[in-house]
Design brief:
Layout lengths: L8 H12 L16 E3 L5 H6 L1 H7 L34 H14 L11 E6 L1 H5 L1 E4 L9 E10 L3 E8 L2 E10 L9 E7 L5 E7 L7 E7 L2 H9 L6 E10 L1 E10 L2 E10 L3 E8 L2 E8 L7 E7 L3 E9 L6 E9 L1
Parallel strand pairs: 4-6
Antiparallel strand pairs: 1-11, 2-9, 3-8, 4-7, 4-9, 5-6, 5-8, 10-17, 11-16, 12-15, 12-17, 13-14, 13-16
């Protein structure tokens, strides 16, 4: 059976990097105000660096509209066979657990520190007969968009079939050697139209069964809460994204054109963060309260000359991480 417990920050550092990446791509020849250099300084820089290879392996982020769910992947009945792989002997419970723990660690978590929205286990006959769920009746996943990730360690292939109120689909994933440090993960976008569960079934082919372990997770639900609460309104977009925050962050836009700039953000979690929008000698600061039902906060400044535009956020590095979604544009 899967194991689930509290939150762990390492996996969420990846999502911060991944979900902000589209805003870092600038079309050549765009006006100077749209040239963006983003520098992140957080208390967990090492976590982001360690997961850079995961970003490259998983592929680019699809910046879909918040209002339009992606179509569900077509379901397939079972994992594709692996005819070219030698099965070898079946493994005992401890060996299978080590493989599932290795898969979990690939997603940035450890046993005993598995946050809500993640499960792991062995690929065996019991797995084929049982189901898993992300979220519980007492703590359902909030409404919004999720990215579902699948990793398998061992041999063969697995098929993970997911179902939500928006539809269902199947991810086919190869089981990779645990010695491979940064194997690719399989991922898909899943929407929940109302708070609820994402249910899973995991099946392995004849090679994977009793020889592999798996882990499945979605991004931290706080990120989905923050993103869903942020409803951007108009303007020429300069950047933004969603990610887990602790310590200090700084986003820099050099040589921004004179004009009026608007920063909107939401913070999901507990406590507060301090948000600063600064351009040259002009700045505005607000304390933003974080909650499970965050409100959108707006900060506006006007500069009469070209200058470096900065978005700064700070939070006590000893405090639990919070999710911040933000968007910046010029009026």
């Amino acid at each position: 059976m899967p194991e689930q417990t509290g939150r762990e920050p390492l996996a969420d550092a990846f999502f911060q990097f991944r979900m902000q990446a589209p805003e870092e791509i600038v079309v050549p020849g765009a006006p100077a105000a749209h040239r963006t250099v983003r520098r992140r300084r957080t208390a967990r820089v090492s976590a982001v660096a360690a997961l850079t290879a995961l970003v490259l392996a998983a592929g680019g982020y699809s910046a879909a509209s918040l209002s339009a769910p992606a179509p569900a992947d077509p379901a397939t009945p079972s994992a594709a066979p692996s005819p070219t792989v030698s099965a070898g002997p079946t493994l005992g419970p401890q060996q299978l657990r080590r493989l599932s723990v290795s898969a979990l660690e690939r997603l940035g978590m450890k046993p005993g520190k598995v946050r809500r929205g993640a499960v792991y286990g062995s690929v065996d006959d019991a797995t084929d007969r049982s189901g898993y769920s992300l979220g519980t009746a007492e703590q359902p996943l909030p409404t919004g968009r999720y990215t579902l990730f699948v990793i398998c360690r061992g041999v063969g292939r697995i098929a993970v079939t997911w179902q939500a109120d928006s539809g269902r689909g199947t991810i086919d994933a190869p089981c990779v050697d645990p010695a491979e440090r940064f194997p690719p993960t399989q991922h898909v976008e899943v929407w929940l139209h109302v708070p609820g569960l994402i249910t899973l079934s995991v099946s392995g082919d004849d090679v994977a069964r009793a020889r592999s372990g798996f882990a499945v997770m979605v991004n931290d639900p706080l990120m989905t809460i923050a993103e869903t609460a942020l409803q951007r309104t108009g303007g020429s977009g300069l950047g933004g994204g969603v990610g887990m925050v602790t310590g200090e962050t700084e986003n820099v836009h050099p040589d921004a054109a004179a004009g009026t700039y608007v920063l909107q953000l939401t913070c999901a979690g507990t406590g507060t963060i301090k948000a600063t929008l600064k351009m040259g000698s002009v700045s505005a600061v607000k304390t933003v309260r974080c909650s499970e039902q965050p409100s959108r906060v707006t900060i506006t400044i006007t500069s009469k000359r070209v200058a470096t535009l900065k978005v700064l956020m700070s939070r006590d590095p000893k405090a639990p991480q919070v999710a911040v979604a933000d968007t910046l544009w010029m009026k």
